[in-house]
């Protein structure tokens, strides 16, 4: 029985288990207490041969004791364990959080402290015998040399993750598992942004609003009018020259442990998704890997998230030296037209870039670019007071989808314009003479946003098909059922209203009827098995229902 | 004497459920999705197909059965649980016959439900030997049904950072699994949520698939601009054909306001004995926690927009279904006649729907299909039903164009699956993916040698990644019901994956635990982890 599995169980199930194992009552108080007690109990039962292995992986509570650095009562896990067990509030402030607090995915570096889950229960009354704990640190988890170099990165931007990076894979280093919750929902980020000086500046730039993406720009054109490049782009061209079409490559990035910008803003009010569970699973929160992901949500919005490791950040700080003072975190947004668009209408030919100021601690962002059919990349970096941009991590390339008919036609298959209109109109029943293809495109997009256009019924349990609930004020319903029951010789036969009734083995029976208004005559007859005796009982039942409705002070309606 | 049709109607049903199987619990609420879908959708559809075949009606239908659903339908444990579920319904409906004895408007309904559940047991247990896939496979052999596959776990392709390895993992696993169930490779695929991005088609081609379906704008916004709109497939440069959804036929069925399913004669989904009847009476049929739920016996018709509901009538609803089938056919005829004139070739009208709409949400849906196919066969000569593969055989020459990024979700792109409610999952999904790719590459290099245990762990890691990628979890988080379950599943699979990843690298596999999660998340027995390698 592993911690993760225990945590998946309901409290009832845990209690049942505890009862089976005859655990002392005092352990039954909180979920976490229960889990700890169960784990400890299981340990006692397991052959010691197993335990070192398990210890290595850090699932065992007291393993932490062997690793002084990891013993920290401030670690989120322990905090939670000490609490009510259904804690849903914000995790302790990032600063208070010791880096050593590891995570589910504890792969201790040789010589470093073991795992996370262990830390959590270091303060608990684990009854596990210390002897089973791996005294020395676990053997190295992976052959030190070969993996990194060979890891597949061919399709990735070369600069993102240097193949030679010493620790390409996660969770190894000391801070590997600093606990920060999953990326904040957009709404809460908005708050975080609002609370900081300079937020208004960021908010004023339409292309960079950290707003929750609900609306798209009134028209894509509108946002094109706001040249995003207007943002402090600096001499974009120059930088591009230096490092390829997407601007400065993120040089000198080091893989490794630890996380990114300052940690998430705390206390933003929105409980992390895990809170809903009442119990955290031991899922990694960070991966100790420099990484940025960029996805197109629709033709106008992008979503970016990133993780910058402590090493990378330290390297940047060393490199910038005194320039580090007064730096800002920025997201540099680089874009270029997609091929098709370049061939068609000429407006968006140029590649360009602009910067978005990042509030402290954010690790994800909705980006309103407002421009379909472009290829984007973001670089998270540090902007110094002197305007120097030090990249930290660069994303993949994402393309905003087309939001209209392609301007490109195929000569062999060209349709005369008026036939085109009529044909496409077919897809838009009820719209006559829609006119230009742009108009058709608009109509189509409106259709897409209507209720019937989505695969919303896919999920059986989602209730997405729900009709809006009718207006319902005060309400009251009442109905009546009648239960008729009796008993006779077990081998007798009984009929009620002419229909035979199945007797239970002891000769009893009961019947249940919805009782409508009116009179019911229940002639019930029992006959002995040999037919010699017969008895009939006939109750008559009458239901009469009156309804009065009053509104206000007794005014009958 | 039947004339050549002027065009074709390609009905496509997408049957999908996420993999929900919880042997660790005595009973589990979310498994009801599966049980309800069997009773209300899959079995009624099989009965409709049976009837059509028996009567020699020349019908054609394309049906996607997702690998997760196929895995559940063929799983002995869930089959057993379904029968247990059905026995309870048979028992309850039997008691309902008695309880409604003095209520002439409900009594025949109770009898009808009782017969329906008995019939479901006959079809499921006796006719199909508990595995509905055998029945579906038989219709495919007869040539009336084309079964297509789907992403292995319904992973939404456009949110995988364009990683081909990810697409290949989803698609290759699906194709393998299809062969296991149906004894032949699939020809087509339903891209999960119709989510397409250029490049996905190349992976489809590589895995031997010939066609897929996108939403209307996926084809209409294709480049170059498609000459025939959505009324002919376009062919990607990879050689795979993309069919576009027809808006009109979608709207007639889908729209909650204007669509057929909202007709007042049809059965009201939201009045169920699980909620309406006295608590102690229904308690034995509810789940362990005693929460009221739908039990599947519903006595009322939609009646009108208000709360007042009238008793349902099977006969009147059937008449309505026939009328709607006639109306649907008539509209398609007009459409085809008009289009054929415009296009100068035979158009195909692609009408895709969630299979569970038919029967589960729209109780009369299977009957509608029955009437529709019969009317098309006997009442007109303009259009013929066709499967997507058949259409490609009949009209092999099609324009080459690249579909646009699109999905059939709200607003047509990725908004449903990338939203403040669910965006937190992507860093985890993408990291797990990158790690899976690294593991697969290492495995191919021979780093794991013949260490059977590591390979087992690697296969399980692939399963856990796939399960985490199900678009259902993001969807549920977005819609806001059952969110806890979706969050929990995502976290569970990511957690499992992370541990497997660490164990595989270290070589210290926890065999006891591995066996346990293999037993729990047991789909895709033949999964090939090298599908993720570069």
Kindly provide the name of the CATH class of the largest domain in chain B: Alpha Beta
Identify the CATH class of the largest domain in chain A.
Mainly Beta
Task: Tell me the Rg of chain A in angstroms.
Answer: 34 Å
The fraction of residues assigned to DSSP E strands of chain B is 5-15%
- What's the domain count of chain B? 2
CATH topology of the largest domain in chain B: 7-stranded beta/alpha barrel
| CATH homologous superfamily (4th level) name of the largest domain in chain B | Glycoside hydrolase 38, N terminal domain
**Helix/strand-derived class of chain A?**
alpha+beta
Oligomer: heterodimer
The tally of strands of chain B reads: 9
Taken as a percent bin, the fraction of beta residues of chain A is 15-25%
Shape field of chain A: elongated
CATH topology of the largest domain in chain A: Immunoglobulin-like
CATH level 4 superfamily of the largest domain in chain A: Immunoglobulins
Which pair has the most extensive contact? A-B, 123 and 137 residues
* Rg of chain B, alpha carbons: 24 Å
Number of helices of chain A: 15
The rounded distance between the terminal residues' Cα atoms of chain B is 56 Å
InterPro entries (chain B): 57_glycoside_trans_central, BE_C, Branching_enz_MT3115-like, Glyco_hydro/deAcase_b/a-brl, Glyco_hydro_38_N_sf, Glyco_hydro_57/38_cen_sf, Glyco_hydro_57_N
Protein name (chain B): DUF1957 domain-containing protein
GO molecular function (chain B): 1,4-alpha-glucan branching enzyme activity
Keywords (chain B): Carbohydrate metabolism
Any overview of this molecule?
Chain B: InterPro entries: 57_glycoside_trans_central, BE_C, Branching_enz_MT3115-like, Glyco_hydro/deAcase_b/a-brl, Glyco_hydro_38_N_sf, Glyco_hydro_57/38_cen_sf, Glyco_hydro_57_N. Chain B: Residues 10-390 form the Glycoside hydrolase family 57 N-terminal domain. Chain B: It holds the Pfam family BE_C. Chain B: Belongs to the glycosyl hydrolase 57 family. Chain B: The active site is at 193 (nucleophile), 354 (proton donor). The complex is a heterodimer of chains A (557) and B (534). Chain A is an alpha+beta fold and 557 residues long. Chain A folds into 4 domains: 3-141, no CATH class; 186-263 and 275-399, Immunoglobulins (Immunoglobulin-like), CATH 2.60.40; 411-449, no CATH class; 481-543, Immunoglobulin-like, CATH 2.60.40. Helix content of chain A is 22%, strand content 17%. In chain A, strands 3, 4, 6, 7 and 8 form a 5-stranded antiparallel β-sheet that branches. In chain A, strands 11-10-14-15 form a 4-stranded antiparallel β-sheet, with no helix packed on it. Chain A has a 3-stranded antiparallel β-sheet with strand order 1-2-5, with no helix packed on it. The model of chain A is unreliable at 43-281, 340-347, 428-435 and 451-469 (pLDDT under 50). Chain B is of the alpha/beta class and 534 residues long. Chain B has 2 domains: 7-74 and 131-267 and 312-411, Alpha-Beta Barrel (7-stranded beta/alpha barrel); 418-532, Families 57/38 glycoside transferase, middle domain (immunoglobulin/albumin-binding domain-like), CATH 1.20.1430.10. Helix content of chain B is 50%, strand content 8%. Chain B has 19 helices and 9 strands. In chain B, strands 1, 2, 3, 4, 5, 6, 7, 8 and 9 form a 9-stranded mixed β-sheet that branches. In chain B, helix 6 (164-182) links the parallel strand 3 and strand 4 (188-190). In chain B, helix 1 packs parallel to helix 5 (132-142), helix 1 (31-54) packs parallel to helix 13 and helix 16 runs antiparallel to helix 18. Chain B is globular and about 70 Å long. The mean pLDDT of chain B is 94. Chains A and B meet through helix 1, helix 4, helix 7, strand 1 and strand 2 of A and helix 1, helix 3, helix 8, helix 9 and helix 12 of B.
